[in-house]
Protein backbone atom coordinates (compact mmCIF):
# COMPACT_ATOMS: atom_id res chain seq x y z
CA UNK A 1 0.00 0.00 0.00
CA UNK A 2 1.38 3.39 -0.92
CA UNK A 3 1.65 6.27 1.54
CA UNK A 4 -1.02 8.19 -0.41
CA UNK A 5 -3.58 5.36 -0.05
CA UNK A 6 -2.77 5.09 3.65
CA UNK A 7 -3.38 8.85 4.13
CA UNK A 8 -6.95 8.50 2.83
CA UNK A 9 -7.83 6.05 5.59
CA UNK A 10 -6.89 8.57 8.27
CA UNK A 11 -8.14 11.79 6.72
CA UNK A 12 -11.08 13.77 8.04
CA UNK A 13 -14.60 12.54 7.20
CA UNK A 14 -16.22 14.24 4.16
CA UNK A 15 -19.09 16.66 4.83
CA UNK A 16 -21.95 14.40 3.63
CA UNK A 17 -20.77 11.45 5.72
CA UNK A 18 -19.97 13.64 8.73
CA UNK A 19 -23.48 15.13 8.51
CA UNK A 20 -25.07 11.69 8.38
CA UNK A 21 -22.97 10.57 11.36
CA UNK A 22 -24.13 13.68 13.30
CA UNK A 23 -27.74 12.73 12.55
CA UNK A 24 -27.11 9.14 13.58
CA UNK A 25 -25.69 10.44 16.87
CA UNK A 26 -29.23 11.70 17.54
CA UNK A 27 -30.69 8.36 16.47
CA UNK A 28 -28.56 5.49 15.21
CA UNK A 29 -31.41 4.25 13.00
CA UNK A 30 -31.73 7.50 11.01
CA UNK A 31 -32.31 6.47 7.38
CA UNK A 32 -30.88 8.33 4.42
CA UNK A 33 -34.40 9.32 3.33
CA UNK A 34 -35.15 10.71 6.80
CA UNK A 35 -31.85 12.61 6.72
CA UNK A 36 -32.76 14.12 3.34
CA UNK A 37 -36.19 15.07 4.66
CA UNK A 38 -34.65 16.76 7.67
CA UNK A 39 -32.17 18.68 5.50
CA UNK A 40 -34.99 19.89 3.23
CA UNK A 41 -36.90 21.10 6.29
CA UNK A 42 -33.76 22.88 7.58
CA UNK A 43 -33.41 24.67 4.25
CA UNK A 44 -37.12 25.42 3.88
CA UNK A 45 -38.62 25.81 7.33
CA UNK A 46 -42.39 26.12 7.02
CA UNK A 47 -42.49 23.77 4.03
CA UNK A 48 -45.75 21.83 3.62
CA UNK A 49 -45.96 18.04 3.69
CA UNK A 50 -46.91 18.11 0.01
CA UNK A 51 -43.89 20.24 -0.92
CA UNK A 52 -41.59 17.96 1.08
CA UNK A 53 -43.02 14.99 -0.79
CA UNK A 54 -42.26 16.64 -4.13
CA UNK A 55 -38.67 17.38 -3.08
CA UNK A 56 -38.16 13.83 -1.80
CA UNK A 57 -40.04 12.34 -4.78
CA UNK A 58 -41.96 10.28 -2.26
CA UNK A 59 -45.54 9.11 -1.86
CA UNK A 60 -47.72 10.83 0.79
CA UNK A 61 -47.64 7.81 3.14
CA UNK A 62 -43.84 7.77 2.98
CA UNK A 63 -43.66 11.50 3.75
CA UNK A 64 -46.03 11.03 6.70
CA UNK A 65 -43.82 8.23 8.05
CA UNK A 66 -40.69 10.38 7.69
CA UNK A 67 -42.31 13.36 9.41
CA UNK A 68 -43.64 11.14 12.20
CA UNK A 69 -40.13 9.76 12.67
CA UNK A 70 -38.64 13.27 12.84
CA UNK A 71 -41.39 14.50 15.16
CA UNK A 72 -42.69 13.63 18.57
CA UNK A 73 -45.47 11.15 19.12
CA UNK A 74 -44.03 8.21 17.20
CA UNK A 75 -43.18 6.01 20.16
CA UNK A 76 -39.57 5.35 21.00
CA UNK A 77 -38.49 6.04 17.40
CA UNK A 78 -39.45 9.76 17.49
CA UNK A 79 -36.56 12.19 17.21
CA UNK A 80 -38.25 15.43 18.34
CA UNK A 81 -36.49 17.42 15.62
CA UNK A 82 -39.54 18.70 13.74
CA UNK A 83 -43.09 19.70 14.53
CA UNK A 84 -46.03 19.83 12.13
CA UNK A 85 -48.37 22.80 12.46
CA UNK A 86 -51.76 23.27 10.89
CA UNK A 87 -52.24 26.54 9.03
CA UNK A 88 -54.74 28.75 10.85
CA UNK A 89 -56.56 29.65 7.61
CA UNK A 90 -56.59 26.11 6.12
CA UNK A 91 -56.84 23.10 8.43
CA UNK A 92 -55.95 20.75 5.57
CA UNK A 93 -52.38 22.08 5.21
CA UNK A 94 -49.64 21.18 7.67
CA UNK A 95 -46.31 22.97 7.67
CA UNK A 96 -43.07 21.66 9.11
CA UNK A 97 -40.95 23.59 11.61
CA UNK A 98 -37.81 22.81 13.57
CA UNK A 99 -37.96 22.23 17.31
CA UNK A 100 -35.15 23.59 19.48
CA UNK A 101 -33.48 20.19 19.25
CA UNK A 102 -33.85 20.33 15.45
CA UNK A 103 -32.30 23.82 15.34
CA UNK A 104 -29.35 22.57 17.38
CA UNK A 105 -28.80 19.70 14.95
CA UNK A 106 -29.14 22.12 12.00
CA UNK A 107 -26.43 24.34 13.50
CA UNK A 108 -24.18 21.29 13.94
CA UNK A 109 -24.78 20.23 10.33
CA UNK A 110 -24.15 23.77 9.10
CA UNK A 111 -20.82 23.86 10.92
CA UNK A 112 -19.86 20.51 9.32
CA UNK A 113 -20.79 21.83 5.88
CA UNK A 114 -18.90 25.11 6.36
CA UNK A 115 -15.76 23.10 7.18
CA UNK A 116 -16.38 20.76 4.25
CA UNK A 117 -13.82 18.18 3.29
CA UNK A 118 -14.03 16.87 -0.29
CA UNK A 119 -15.32 13.37 -0.87
CA UNK A 120 -12.60 12.70 -3.45
CA UNK A 121 -9.17 14.16 -2.92
CA UNK A 122 -6.89 12.68 -5.54
CA UNK A 123 -4.50 15.64 -5.41
CA UNK A 124 -3.99 15.53 -9.17
CA UNK A 125 -5.05 18.04 -11.77
CA UNK A 126 -7.72 19.98 -9.88
CA UNK A 127 -7.92 23.65 -10.86
CA UNK A 128 -6.38 26.06 -8.34
CA UNK A 129 -9.81 27.63 -7.76
CA UNK A 130 -11.01 24.33 -6.30
CA UNK A 131 -8.31 24.16 -3.64
CA UNK A 132 -9.16 25.00 -0.04
CA UNK A 133 -7.12 27.37 2.11
CA UNK A 134 -5.24 24.37 3.51
CA UNK A 135 -4.25 23.23 0.02
CA UNK A 136 -6.60 20.23 -0.14
CA UNK A 137 -7.92 19.58 -3.62
CA UNK A 138 -11.67 19.84 -4.13
CA UNK A 139 -13.39 17.62 -6.64
CA UNK A 140 -14.50 19.63 -9.65
CA UNK A 141 -18.26 20.13 -10.00
CA UNK A 142 -17.96 19.36 -13.69
CA UNK A 143 -16.21 16.02 -13.10
UniProtKB/TrEMBL annotation:
<dbReference type="InterPro" id="IPR036388">
    <property type="entry name" value="WH-like_DNA-bd_sf"/>
</dbReference>
<protein>
    <recommendedName>
        <fullName>DNA-binding MarR family transcriptional regulator</fullName>
    </recommendedName>
</protein>
<dbReference type="InterPro" id="IPR036390">
    <property type="entry name" value="WH_DNA-bd_sf"/>
</dbReference>
Amino acid sequence: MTANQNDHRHRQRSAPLAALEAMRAVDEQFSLQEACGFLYICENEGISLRELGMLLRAQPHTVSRIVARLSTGFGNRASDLVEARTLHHDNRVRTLHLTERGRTLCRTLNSIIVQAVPILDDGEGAPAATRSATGATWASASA
